[in-house]
Amino acid sequence: MRVAITGGTGFVGRHLATRLDPAETVVVSRRTGVDIDDVDALTGAFRDCEASGPLRRDQP
Description:
Layout: E1 3-6, H1 11-19, E2 25-28, H2 39-46, E3 51-53
Parallel strand pairs: 1-2, 1-3
C-alpha cells in the first residue's frame, strides 16, 4: 500500500516513515522539495496513495 506522510521530516512523521516500506512511502515536506502551496505538486505526491498521515492540527 502506498502511503503519503505529511510532515514526514518532523518528529512524528520521521518516526512513522522509518516503520514503513521506503518503496511505498512518499514523504511530503518542504524539506523534500514538495511545495505545500503548489496544488500540482501535492496532487503528484499523493497520486496512487491509499493512505496518508499524520495530519497536523492547527497551532494556536
